[in-house]
């Protein structure tokens, strides 16, 4: 009987170790979640900065218009305005490409987060089921022990 208790105690310790590993994994997943949230916040800040960049681009376009008016009298100034326009266009194209890449990256991270949340829920569900099974087994063994003692 003592061997049975020893086995039961070992099994409980094993379940306890599993439970602790699950808790550690949940904690690690939560840490990852916080990092992802921080990354997302950084991305949102970048988008806000991009908005101000658009305003700066609009201001730059206004300045370009002023330069075009001055370019009528001086050909050299006209060439400089064209060079600035090309630069702005390339920057906008580069910016759009970077923005699309970031959107894709955020989408991938969100999908990964959802998968991890599903994994956590599955693990928690399994842990709960195992805990109930263990409780039932303990109750059965307690009843058997009580019968043997009687």
TrEMBL record:
Domain of life: Eukaryota
Residue ranges of coiled coil: 57-119
One Gene Ontology term from the biological process aspect of the record: de novo centriole assembly involved in multi-ciliated epithelial cell differentiation
Location relative to the cell: Cytoplasm
A GO CC term attached to the entry: centriole
Keywords: Coiled coil, Cytoplasm
Main location: cytoplasm
Transmembrane feature ranges: none
Name under which the protein is recorded: DEUP1 protein
Protein source organism: Chloroceryle aenea
Lineage: Eukaryota, Metazoa, Chordata, Craniata, Vertebrata
Gene coding for it: Deup1
């Amino acid at each position: 009987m003592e061997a049975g208790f020893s086995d039961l105690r070992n099994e409980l310790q094993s379940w306890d170790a599993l439970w602790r590993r699950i808790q550690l994994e949940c904690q690690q997943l939560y840490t990852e979640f916080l990092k992802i949230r921080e990354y997302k916040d950084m991305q949102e800040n970048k988008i806000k900065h991009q908005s101000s960049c658009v305003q700066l681009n609009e201001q730059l376009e206004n300045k370009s218009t002023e330069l075009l008016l001055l370019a009528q009298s001086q050909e050299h100034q006209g060439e400089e305005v064209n060079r600035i326009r090309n630069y702005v266009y390339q920057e906008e194209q580069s910016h759009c490409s970077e923005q699309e890449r970031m959107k894709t990256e955020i989408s991938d991270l969100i999908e990964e987060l959802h998968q991890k949340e599903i994994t956590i829920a599955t693990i928690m569900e399994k842990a709960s089921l195992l805990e109930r099974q263990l409780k039932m087994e303990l109750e059965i063994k307690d009843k058997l022990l009580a019968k043997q003692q009687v």
